[in-house]
# Entry
Amino acid sequence: MPVSSLPAVLPGAGPTDYARYMRTDALLSLQRGPTEWVHPDELLFQIVHQASELWLKLCGSLLSRAFTHLGVGQPGAAELQLRRASETLRLTTDQLHILRSLPPAHFAVIRTALGTGSGFESPGWRLLRAATTELDIAFSRLLSEHRIAPADVYRGQPSDPLYRLAEALVEVDERIALWRTEHYSVATRVIGQGVLGTRHTPIDSLPALIAHRRFPTLWEARKDLFAAPADGACPRSVRP
Ligand code: HEM
# Structure
């Protein structure tokens, strides 16, 4: 018997259990259709944004699981969720690439349908900002409980649980910066430099955000390791 003819047993809308579990009817009705389009490339533009929101939703959930693990003293489990969160950010970044194929003239038409809508209103990015702030506080609390200064984490072994956790946080931070770098690059390719966004924000204000850090302490800690010792001797911290 072909799999497609098996009767659906799950509750919910849709002809198959796949449709019911994945909620494909609802999902695939979320894009504007040909009768609403101001330009056919709207589908590309909308799907990249919607897919980004889904990955960022997952990212937020993974960061919040990491936060919960930190609260109960499980740095290894937190690290695992942070690594997965980084992977969602990598995927979100990779999919921006296809927008380079969006001709500026087509986007000029699409933009007329966006109202005042702007990436600054992205719920996924809001979630990411809130979740990383929470994690930053939780990590600092964990270090205080262990009476460890951030730079001392990096004086330890790279295999230490706290070291690994710190690096997983740094990776999330770096992935955010890489997304912003790619986003700025793609956005200027489509709309050029010196242009105002839908919120009248100059596009040229975006590069400053690339240097913004969600876990500043861990970047400062790196600097501490390179601070010159007063007597000119090798810093105690530099061990093979
Ligand atoms: C053709 C592609 C795109 C263009 C031309 C573009 C353009 C812009 C511009 C001009 C801004 C500045 C704020 C404004 O006035 O709107 C901005 C911000 C932003 N956009 Fe996009 N964007 C594009 C794709 C995307 C995609 C796919 C996402 C995914 C969610 C996104 C998310 C954001 C976010 C989060 C910001 C806030 C700045 C930040 O946190 O770095 N954008 N974008």
Notes: The radius of gyration is 23 Å.
